[in-house]
Amino acid sequence: MAADSAAAERAFDARIAAGETIEPKDWMPERYRKQLIRMMSQHAHSEIVGMLPEGNWITRAPTLQRKVGLLAKVQDEAGHGLYIYCGTETLGVDRTELVDQLLSGKAKYASIFNYPTLSWADIGTIGWFVDGAAIVNQTMLAKASYGPYARAMVRICKEENFHKRQGFEIIATLAAGTPEQRRMAQDAVNRWWWPSLMMFGPNDKDSPNSAELTKWGVKRKGNDELRQRFVNLTVAHAKAIDLVLPDPDLRYNAETGNWDFGTIDWAEFDRVIHGEGPLNRERLAARNKAHDEGAWVRAAASAYAAKHAPESASRAA
Amino acid sequence: MVAADEPGTNGQWPLWEVFLQPSGGAPFEHAGSVHAVDAESALQNARDVYTRRGEGVNLWVVPSAAIVASAPSDAGPFFDPGNDKPYRHPQFYTSPRGVRV
Ligand SMILES: [Fe+2]
Ligand SMILES: [Fe+2]
Fold first, then answer.
1. Do A305 and B1 touch (CB under 8 A)?
2. Which of A118, A126, A194, B85 has its CA 20 to 30 A from that of A62?
3. How far apart are CA B88 and CA B76, in angstroms?
4. How far, in Å, from the CA of A74 to the mean position of ligand 1?
């Protein structure tokens, strides 16, 4: 038996090495399944919680055009959550179970969403930085070894560009506005820059999960490489709209062709991940409230279906 | 009677697989899945989740439990019969020199 599973594992490793895609019914090591469930469900939770900081501004968007844009973006994020939950379910876990883990506070999600959105400029900055960082990460994940995850990422990447561009347009407009609007834009950039860099996760040397996920071809690039790519891309954007990224150590390194940046405050990252961010409790409370307030909709749908069951069964037959 | 009419385990709504036809005449492609109480709401959920930007002109939703799939473990023997019949391919046949068939 042990020899059997060792052989199966060798065959699996060979498939990964050959760049093959793993599908739900294929044999996979239990650890691969576990790690994927953990990573994908955290990703899905992040999409769902990510709606909260922005949803907060839908009723206060400055124009109707900005409002419909933001609404569409937030709706996309709900869709992203659903794509990834459904991908996670192919690994044999129930969505209800995953949602329960989020609502009970047991599950993790991206720490960035525990920061407050204090002004309209934050909405622009989130699109520019947070969705920008998500694009860098998700473009890599679109080549993940697990088919349902990779396909969900392809679908998501198609939508993220709109998110980033609407955000950058908001921030560029403010940056070109009155002195007060410029101050607002710069203030948002100051607050969101470092948490955005933390989105890529710990340095590779401190990230045991990453090493395993890389070995299995779920991740194709390390956290540090992705973070660097994001910095390189974003420096040019900031220059173009004449805003300053809040890092005195940020400078171009002609040797590597990269923008070197200062030290990330990993103690802050740890605090926020472990529930001590500015808004962890509020986010969880808001998510639970929304879930509870939706209970009657779910009950009504179930009651309707039960009432019409004979009818729809005869239609389906 | 279809499986989707039965209540899911632990109160979860049944799962439906979603297939999308990207444009008229194109084949339907698997897009993902949705949970829904019945076929009608599965169709509506599928539209909201998978076609917010005109990604499709037609949708199918199928109770996931109704899908019968081949087993990856016997993919070899299962598809084998197709591999040892080279005479099913045009390259198997020769034609006189200079004639384009
Ligand atoms: Fe997203
Ligand atoms: Fe997004």
1. no
2. A194
3. 19
4. 9
Token output for A151: 């396909």
B94 SS3 class: coil
**Which residue segments constitute the domains of chain B, with CATH numbers given?**
15-92 (3.10.20.520)
Predicted-complex ipTM score: 0.88
Please state whether the predicted TM-score (pTM) of the whole model is above 0.80: yes
The residue type at A228: Q
CA B85 to chain centre: 26
Q: Which two tokens stand for residue A247?
A: 């890092």
- Residues of chain A found within 8 Å of residue B49, distances taken between Cβ atoms: 79, 82-83
Grouping H, G, I as helix, E, B as strand and the rest as coil, residue B60 is strand
A92 conformational bin, left if phi > 0, alpha if psi -120 to 50, beta if neither:
left
Instruction: Quick: pLDDT tens for A121-154.
Output: 999 999 999 999 999 999 999 999 999 999 999 9
Contact B1 A94 (CB under 8 A): no
CA quadruple A34, A39, A44, A45: dihedral, nearest 10? 100
